[in-house]
Amino acid sequence: MLFFKDVLPILKKHEITFEKSFRESGNIYTFVFRSDEKIKWNAGQHGAFIIKHEKIKKSIRAFSIASTDRDEYIEISTRVGDKPSEYKQALMNLKPGVKMNMRGPIGGFYLHNDKPTLMIAGGIGITPYKSIIKDIMASSNNYPQIVHLLYIDSKEEFIYQQELNKASNDNGVIIDYIKQREDLSKSIETFISKYENDANYFIAGSPQMIKSITALLRQHNIKNKNIIKDSFIGY
Question: What is the structure's pLDDT at 29?
Fold first, then answer.
């Protein structure tokens, strides 16, 4: 039943209005939208965003939402390279007041219980965690007492640092900014040694990263049911 609850919102289409965009760091840009209707979602879920102000071949793309439904705005972030796709170029061409559509938000990438939680982010894979951590800061829900975020970026373009550091200072969320893969593996193994299968392990990043970290977790006998993944393709 939980699966259907997490995917059925894809049938609902919302009209959203572009408000602004700005550069986070390097080639990472954030886009902010608003909606006249109240849209509910679980922190960490993603929406399917549909371009309609330009005619392009692939007009729909999924993005994790970096804001919470308390914020009353919808925020996404993505990399925009020197030769962006038609879709990303259309995002960059947005003007305030232009309309788009969003289906969802959907997905099971959110906190389901209060077990100790390790959140592993690779590069732009940090976006769903910003939403999750903001929700922890604002909510009285029964969230985990132990939340540890490992944020790896070889380019050291760590975005959202102000918000993340505030969560660390005010709510006790442990955050490690990591550059080297070896250091990431050691930190994961340290967490496993403490909590084993009495914890949840979230992974968000490239398919290759998710595959390798999942393999590491399985080598240490972490059960698949305790591994929650969010794959970022082409971001």
Answer: 97
